[in-house]
Amino acid sequence: MILLTPDEMGAADRLAAESGIDSYGLMVKAGYAVAASALKHFATVRRAIVLAGPGNNGGDGYVVARALAESGMDVAIHALGDPDKLKGDARTARFECPIEPQSLEAYLPQAGDLVIDALFGAGLARPLSGAVTALIEAIGRKGVPVLAVDLPSGLSGATGAPLGAAFHATRTVTFMAPKPGHYLLPGRDLCGVLEVADIGIPMRIVRAAQGGKLSVNSPALWRAALPHSAAGAHKFSRGHLGVFSGPAGKTGAARLSAMAGIRCGAGLVTLAVPASAEAEVAAHQTAIMQRRLDEADDLRDWLADRRLSAFVIGPGFGADARAREFVQALAERPTVIDADGISAFAEAPDELFVTLGRFAPHCVLTPHQGEFSRLFPDIAADDDCGKVEKARAASARAHAVVLYKGADTVIAAPDGRAAINANAPPWLATAGSGDVLAGIIGGLLAQGMEAFEAACAGAFLHGEAGSRAGEGLTAEDLPGHLPPLSAFS
């Protein structure tokens, strides 16, 4: 499912009009789609209250009001501003609606109401007025359900962040394509159940308007890139993943990554361990191979084996000069740089970026918010940018795929492609979960997937494993619940 920013949706509307499509006809279809949702999902409400704004979102609201009145529902309209000053299609919708609007301030929320929020759509770029904010708070206190038109008013369609106050909708109906704000938090929660209504803009026009190559992460993005084993496959043809362990007492994170890598299909996985951890790791692993590796010279000797196809470094490794040296040696090969592998460069991020810039963008950085802030402090501090824009900027700077972790993980590539992952259950927020994710991505890289597709597939598979394991899971449970890759091919 592609996503359109508010600007891109505006471009789609303009292209549709330029192609000869009746813009008012699109407004009517949008309004009737919202009315259909209201009748289907809120059939027992006593009356519908349409809050109509001063633009085209308000025009949609007048169409909704007319359609619901035609169905026999008791409907009232409360308008923000002077409805007689509406222009274009919104003006037409206002005068074709037989219900006379009242002022916004005249509405007093009551039990049994359904509020149709048609005040502002996804293009809102400024905080709401005090009067609207007060009404949002009054509706929330009364517990009146809200059906949002396009996007809950007060929510940024680009970033998913409230611009001051915002409605908390029970359901949201948007048109043709979702916006980033429907999937980025806290917008995803504020939208409630999301419906996407096809109002008749041809998909060729929607795609023509999409400049940013942004999607919801789904198998459609990476299915064609999944590894397939031929009948004559052997362990080395399925890829050899190397995972670097920390010292004794700190091997658990790397062991989780290694197990995830082999569970998602890598033919061999080797844990590279310092001497102090050899006995500890050997006591815990059976299918995972083990190699003693202490210093960078040992690593360079190991890298002479070209059958090693990908690496994971960072989980439990230690954020020190040795980590920086190892990452620099690994950068010429597909590598997941996670946790300590990222934090080791907190004082010298340009050192990492210069190193990665020497090679094709085949490495994946997997920072959580704190690690992202340490590696990209200026990008993280830019309050005008949402998570997608931050991930894209970071990816371009690092010359690597950036998987910006969180409940609304964003994956971005240096070429501008980006995806928002939305299938992760909340119980994935547990210690070690990120180490498993790093191992999944590493296992996919080892099998030959390109970095962006491997990161997207890894995030999705991680979410699926969390859903299968269920509430109360621990990180150790996740590798055993990974779905087979064949389920998506």
TrEMBL record:
Gene3D superfamilies on file: 3.40.1190.20, YjeF N-terminal domain
Annotated K(+) binding sites: N57, D117, S153
CDD domains: YXKO-related (cd01171)
Cofactor remark from the record: Binds 1 potassium ion per subunit.
Requisite cofactors: Mg(2+); K(+)
Record's keyword terms, sorted: ATP-binding, Isomerase, Lyase, Metal-binding, Multifunctional enzyme, NAD, NADP, Nucleotide-binding, Potassium
EC number in record: 4.2.1.136, 5.1.99.6
Pfam family, one: Carb_kinase
Residues noted as binding AMP in the record, renumbered to the chain: K405, G406, A407, D408, T409, G434
Reactions catalysed, as given in the entry: (6S)-NADPHX + ADP = AMP + phosphate + NADPH + H(+); (6R)-NADHX = (6S)-NADHX; (6R)-NADPHX = (6S)-NADPHX; (6S)-NADHX + ADP = AMP + phosphate + NADH + H(+)
Biological process annotations from GO: metabolite repair; nicotinamide nucleotide metabolic process
Domain YjeF C-terminal per the UniProt entry, residue ranges: 218-489
Function per UniProt: Catalyzes the dehydration of the S-form of NAD(P)HX at the expense of ADP, which is converted to AMP. Together with NAD(P)HX epimerase, which catalyzes the epimerization of the S- and R-forms, the enzyme allows the repair of both epimers of NAD(P)HX, a damaged form of NAD(P)H that is a result of enzymatic or heat-dependent hydration. Bifunctional enzyme that catalyzes the epimerization of the S- and R-forms of NAD(P)HX and the dehydration of the S-form of NAD(P)HX at the expense of ADP, which is converted to AMP. This allows the repair of both epimers of NAD(P)HX, a damaged form of NAD(P)H that is a result of enzymatic or heat-dependent hydration.
Family to which this protein belongs: Belongs to the NnrE/AIBP family.
Assembly: Homotetramer.
Name recorded for this polypeptide: Bifunctional NAD(P)H-hydrate repair enzyme
